[in-house]
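Please review the protein record below. Let me know how this chain folds according to its tokens.
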Amino acid sequence: MGNILEYFKNNKLVSSIVSIGVVGGVSYGAYQLSQSMTQSQILNDVDSTKLRVVNDDDELDMNRTLYTTVTKTGKISTIIKGIKVNYVANSQEQCLSPETIMEILKSTIELAGDEYASATKNNRVDRRKARIAKKRNIYLQLITRYNEDCEEILEKAQSQLLLELDIPKDVFEESMLILMDRGFFQQLYMLQASVKQKIKEKIKSTKDINGDLIKKIITYHIQILTNCPEEVKQYIIRLQQKPETKDLIPLALNLIIQDQIHEKFGVEEEDQIRCLQKQEIQADHRINQLLGQIETVMTSFMQSFGLGGMDQLPDSLETFF
């Protein structure tokens, strides 16, 4: 389990700015985790389809199914070579070790990375066109669709890994539950939630950001959360109106803010991640202060809409389900 804790320690600074879904959306993460523990998908490898934005602001083909293939020839074979499948010794149940679970989750990121990057870039183009055209319903529907696409891509990659490793999916899911119930709840819960944040590093950065610019970007980020422009407020209110989209608010908020950052500074989230990974940036006291402010104002923002923050992270499975 020490490896899992070290994983979070090494990625804490980077995740502070790009992990709004984790910082402010524990309820969303809990929802997704419970869903992944109870649902299964039939996954087929067929050609991917492109997203199309329709003209009517109230209509978007939400019945479209994302058909993707995340496996390149030989890629999955290379990835699984680095995974050692071990089970907890002296356990009455068939329970995978924490280290094996961590390796599977990390390898899921590696396998799904290319398809995730493609889906992200395509969605950015479409939703920013909708935003510029002031098609707010379309914009929010594209955000919802993006979440669904990411879920499918990650689910498919994980299912393919488990199949190649000869690990039944129910054994993997049951192992997560057993270890959580044995005291590893928060570590495994956060590891599961962090997959969607770490996979962002699979998108290649095209711009090198210096310390001065990243400070301006983080400050602008804080200003949006503090002042809550009318545009942002209306998006959140619309998402709150439906139970199926309310849980997506942290993810949606991150995408909305990143679209505004791109509009103002011309940089993407992966450019910010790359910058924050630099040693001199991580050692910058002012940047660390600003990142701390993001967590504080994000919590206040969520609470202002009656939504939970990090203080609502459940301590055990008893309060989780």
